[in-house]
């Protein structure tokens, strides 16, 4: 297989795998360690595929019959990499109590009959 064809196949495969992992991040977020690992794998796959897509464009390769698709798809891969690094569970940045905790506190304060 020529280098252009290999770059096409590998870049599209890595993008597809990264998007599938990103869609199933909820499964990986059951533990913080697994979520962090999944985020790093997604980001790595997306960055590698973006590099390959930029290289593919400069080698004159085509994706789906168009020479102009590789660069925008590389930008999308970078965006997915950044979005994959977002924390699903969230962190309490402001220190405010959320409505669920308020309801739980009220339930605990109610006198028991």
From TrEMBL:
Keywords: Membrane, Transmembrane, Transmembrane helix. The chain crosses the membrane at residues 6-25, 37-57, 69-88. Residues 93-113 are annotated as: Disordered. It comes from the Archaea. This is Uncharacterized protein. It comes from Candidatus Thalassarchaeum betae. The lineage of its organism: Archaea, Methanobacteriati, Thermoplasmatota, Candidatus Poseidoniia, Candidatus Poseidoniales.
